[in-house]
Specification:
By secondary structure, the protein is mainly alpha-helical. It is about 50% helix and about 10% strand.
Length: about 80
């Protein structure tokens, strides 16, 4: 993927990727991330999603969605 930053960090900067993978990571961040802003830093579970998509490995996307839904139930912002 051409990542030029430090690999052993929990957050990855999107600017360290090559151009085609920046768009893939950007799309996955907007589709699967629960943040409202700050789309330049990629967390480790998003990078796992992108790696699974790129290498055509199985990945349980529904488990990630379910875990974030469970986290929202315990917060005060539950509707």
């Amino acid at each position: 993927m051409g990542f030029t930053g430090l690999v052993n960090e929990s957050h990855y900067n999107k600017q360290n990727l090559s151009q085609p993978y920046k768009f893939l990571v950007h799309s996955v961040i907007h589709a699967m991330c629960h943040r409202k802003g700050g789309y330049d830093v990629v967390v480790d579970y998003i990078m796992c999603m992108v790696t699974a998509l790129f290498l055509n490995h199985p990945y349980n996307f529904s488990q990630v969605i379910f875990e974030h839904m469970k986290a929202n139930v315990t917060r005060d912002k539950f509707l």
